[in-house]
Design brief:
The protein contains ten helices and seven strands. By secondary structure, it is α/β, with parallel strands linked by helices. The protein has one domain: Rossmann fold (3-Layer(aba) Sandwich). The chain has a seven-stranded parallel β-sheet, with helices on both faces. The longest helix is centred in the middle third of the chain and has 21 residues. The protein is globular, with a radius of gyration of 19 Å. The N and C termini lie far apart (about 45 Å). InterPro entries: NAD(P)-bd_dom_sf, SDR_fam. This is Short-chain dehydrogenase/reductase SDR. One of its GO terms (molecular function) is oxidoreductase activity. Keywords: Oxidoreductase.
């Protein structure tokens, strides 16, 4: 029995051995949790972000590489992909995770320059990532995996600002069309849609959307009580990281064009009628 457990742990520890991954928005939050988990499981990780100090410190601590990358600039994303290929000779995984929140406000008074800025990061950043990751994977003949971060706000109205919701919904559509083309070459493309993870981005988005400050523990409490079907349970960045590792790994070898929703059932059901079960 002990040998069986040891074998299972060894197998799990080697889940990403030899994989080369680029993670955008990898310096903090969900991206940082994923970078750590990938590295712990044997992957060679390139962290791409605009937060240079955080990104460099994290990369040094886990044996990764860091590159400054503004995903709204195609040349920055291309450079991040090239770094991975130059470093290890191939690209197996792109976790296209970078994003921002806001702008908030009525649809009738949106600042269109702010809208364009958000879309340039949240949506075009994913276009840039998929484009250049796919090129690298095709050149290296890698049957790779591309994972994009969407959101529960991309599949359900009223959870975030108009522009953020628009960008996250569009990512899901982009993922599906990319999966249709790239599947011919064995490249898988999927999404993760987290809900209520108290990350730095969610905190800033909440401030813009609701107009007041909120602490991470308050968000966790709200999600625990009213934001999922799993009472008393709250989502974490590590939960999303585990989902990203699953979709990126060979364990998900027959999964593509899929949006994996991490919401505790929130967008699929309601607890408002729980009285009928009592």
């Amino acid at each position: 029995m002990e040998k069986c457990v040891d074998d299972m742990q060894t197998s799990s520890a080697k889940r990403m051995i030899g994989k080369v991954a680029v993670i955008t928005g990898g310096a903090r939050g969900i991206g940082a949790a994923t970078a750590k988990l990938f590295a712990e499981n044997g992957a060679h990780v390139v962290i791409a972000d605009v937060l240079d100090e955080l990104g460099t410190n994290l990369a040094n601590s886990i044996g990764a590489r860091y590159i400054h990358c503004d995903v709204s600039k195609e040349e920055d994303v291309e450079s991040a992909i090239k770094l991975a290929v130059t470093w290890k000779g191939k690209l197996d995984i792109l976790f296209s995770n970078a994003g921002i929140g806001g702008p908030a406000g009525s649809i009738t008074s949106l600042d269109m320059e702010q809208v364009k800025h958000l879309i340039s990061i949240n949506l075009l950043g994913n276009v840039h990532g998929i484009k250049h990751a796919a090129r690298a994977m095709l050149t290296c003949h890698s049957k790779g995996s591309i994972v994009c971060t969407s959101s529960s706000a991309g599949i359900m109205g009223g959870l975030a600002s108009h522009t953020y919701s628009l960008s996250k919904a569009a990512i899901i559509g982009l993922m599906r069309t990319a999966a249709c083309e790239l599947g011919e070459h064995g490249i898988r493309v999927n999404c993760i849609s987290p809900h209520g993870v108290p990350s730095e981005m969610l905190m800033s988005g909440y401030r813009l959307f609701m107009g007041n400050e909120v602490r991470p523990e308050e968000v966790s409490k709200l999600v625990s009580e009213k934001g999922s079907l799993l009472r008393g349970k709250t989502p974490t960045a590590e939960d999303v990281a585990k989902a990203a590792m699953f979709l990126a790994s060979d364990d998900a070898g027959f999964i593509t064009a899929h949006n994996l929703v991490l919401d505790g059932g929130y967008t699929s059901g309601t607890t408002t009628m729980n009285c009928i079960y009592q």
